[in-house]
Design goal:
The complex is a heterodimer. Chain A is mainly β. In chain A, 0% of the residues lie in helices and 53% in strands. Chain A has no helices and twelve strands. In chain A, strands 2, 5, 6, 10, 11 and 12 form a six-stranded mixed beta sheet that branches. In chain A, strands 3-9-8-7 form a four-stranded antiparallel beta sheet, with no helix packed on it. Chain A has a two-stranded antiparallel sheet with strand order 1-4. The chains are: A mainly beta, B mainly beta. Chains A and B meet through strand 5, strand 6, strand 10 and strand 11 of A and strand 4, strand 5, strand 9 and strand 10 of B.
């Protein structure tokens, strides 16, 4: 069965601090996809990144970076020099690669508050 | 950039009434999904739709729910007899294969 665990329910940081959001997943499949979504107070789901299970290279996009470690089944997300606009709920999600539809399994989310 | 469009953005309905939530997926996408998020909780999978039929559904998606693609562009979620616990944000998503584009959601309030 698939499972995504985001152990950090809420995190508060002061602006310009770095912050890492943890994500641990479980799946029996060898081929799968991992995602991060941002949900700002307005409620929409904003796609941040997709990573397939065969690509363990870390990725950096501006102030965002992701650390995929297959050995520990983790896909952590770091925001460098946090800003107030980063305040949101962040969801990690897993999709197994199967024929047909591939639904997403979401973690419970981490609420990040960046204090000015 | 192509978008998934959901209407209405907010809906208030009385318990026991039927509601239809509408979605226009991205035109060349093949897979369509509905997800639900009860306030303050995680996003949960309801149903996936491919090749004009349901391909997978969760245990949440019971007989009160149905989905339809009536005209080749719209993708609808019908809740037959709403209950208070159906109050949630409902997200539609579409996908060409493994990428997902979510709509901005419909907030359903059952009173």
């Amino acid at each position: 069965a698939q499972k995504v665990t985001q152990a950090q329910t809420e995190i508060s940081v002061v602006e310009k601090e770095d912050v890492t959001l943890d994500c641990v997943y479980e799946t029996r499949d060898t081929t799968y996809y991992l995602f991060w979504y941002k949900q700002p107070p307005s409620g929409e789901l904003v796609f941040l990144i997709r990573r397939n299970s065969f690509d363990e290279q870390n990725e950096i996009s501006g102030r965002y970076s992701w650390n995929f470690q297959k050995s520990t089944s983790s896909f952590n997300f770091t925001i460098t020099a946090s800003q107030v606009v980063d305040s949101a709920v962040y969801f990690c999600a897993l999709s197994e690669a199967r024929a047909g539809a591939n639904n997403l399994f979401f973690g419970t989310g981490t609420r990040l508050t960046v204090i000015p | 950039e192509p978008e998934v469009t959901q209407t209405p953005s907010h809906q208030v309905t009385q318990m026991g009434q039927e509601v239809i939530l509408r979605c226009v997926p991205i035109s060349n996408h093949l897979y369509f999904y509905w997800y639900r998020q009860i306030l303050g909780q995680k996003v949960e999978f309801l149903v996936s739709f491919y090749n004009n039929e349901i391909s997978e559904k969760s245990e949440i998606f019971d007989d009160q729910f149905s989905v339809e693609r009536p005209d080749g562009s719209n993708f609808t979620l019908k809740i037959r007899s709403t209950k208070l616990e159906d109050s949630a944000m409902y997200f539609c998503a579409s996908s060409p294969n493994y990428g997902y584009t979510f709509g901005s959601g419909t907030r359903l309030t059952v009173v």
